[in-house]
Amino acid sequence: MLMAIELILNSVNINFVVFNKYLYPEKLDGIFFVIFIITIAAAEAAVAIAIIINLYRSHRSIDVEKASEMKY
Amino acid sequence: MTASAIIFYIISAFILGTGVFAMTTRKIFRSAIWLLFSLIGIAALYFWLQVEFIAAVQIVVYVGGIVVLIIFSIFLTQQSGREMPKQSVKRTLASALAVLFGFVLTFLQIWKYNFQPTTKTFDWTVAKIGSRMLSTTENGYALPFEVVSMLLLAAMIGCIVIAMRPSAPTNGKVKEKDLEEIKEDTRTIVTPFNEKSEISEIQQIPSRGDVEEAL
Questions:
Q1: Which of B124, B151, B186 is the last residue of a domain?
Q2: Min CA distance, B129 vs chain A (Å)?
Q3: Do B116 and B12 share a structural domain?
Q4: Does residue B40 lie in a domain region?
């Protein structure tokens, strides 16, 4: 599901913080990137879970491969 | 090897191990719990890096928000004890190849780049972050801040609209029973507001004759 996306975003965050701390300690850009990534990840998770709950309501399943039909 | 390095290796082994478990276990609820442990480990790594602000944000947003949301949605949508179906060999092979190529690419990049260790100290404070966040000068982050706030607003409204109980069934087939329910709902909602809507119409039209007609 979207847990893998969360893990990937977290690894990117760690990279940003570490490079900021050890290579460019006089700047703060890595920390800003991390804050924005966390914000966007939270928004993305909320929207994805809303979509999943709606999909479960209409199809009684959250398997993406079963949801192959479209509205029109 | 100093104690700091030992702690770093313990934390990173914890993060990697729980991350791998989160992706390989076939029960979705266990996967969410492993993800929770992995995120806590990442927060510990931030504490180790002495960026306590990011660690606090990590715990509040991820551990307190996103994982709880994921667990709630798992409980709402399916039986947590059921095992997921096994992935096909083709898919496993493709993902293994992707992981291998990604690892080789990053490893070569890190190998080639000559890192210069700096002697400067990393000084961040929350006050500094806040003033940079709202400054409109060259290195300010005011524009991304505003854009992200608009994005959060849009995501909030989108979530409410998507997850709202739809007025008609979404799979296109409208059942008679549902239609009756919808009609009753709209009747109960619409009728008390009729008088108010007339009043607002009158207020919007400034001309005197219209008001007199309506009255």
A1: B124
A2: 8
A3: yes
A4: yes
- In the 8-state DSSP scheme, what is residue A64? T
Better pLDDT: B80 or A49: A49
Give the ipTM of the model, two decimals please. 0.82
- Contact check, Cβ <8 Å, B69/A41: no
Number of domains in chain B: 2
DSSP chain B: --HHHHHHHHHHHHHHHHHHHHHH-SBHHHHHHHHHHHHHHHHHHHHHTT-HHHHHHHIIIIIIIIHHHHHHHHHHHS-TTSBPPPPPHHHHHHHHHHHHHHHHHHHHHHHHS------S-----HHHHHHHHT--STT--HHHHHHHHHHHHHHHHHHHHHHSPPSS-TTS---HHHHHHHHHHHHHHHGGGHHHHHHHHHHH---HHHHHHH-
**How many angstroms away from the CA of A5 is the closest CA of chain B?**
11
Residues B39 and B109 in one domain: yes
User: What are the average pLDDT values for consecutive 10-residue runs of chain B, which has 215 residues?
Assistant: 89 92 85 91 90 89 88 77 75 91 92 78 80 79 88 90 68 54 54 46 49 50
Cα separation, B162 vs A47, whole angstroms:
8
Tell me the nearest-neighbour CA distance from A65 into chain B, angstroms.
12
Question: Are the Cβ atoms of B39 and A62 closer than 8 angstroms?
Answer: no
Q: Print the domain residue range for B200.
A: 178-215
> At B30, which amino acid appears?
R
- Name chain B contacts of A41, Cβ cutoff 8 Å: 66
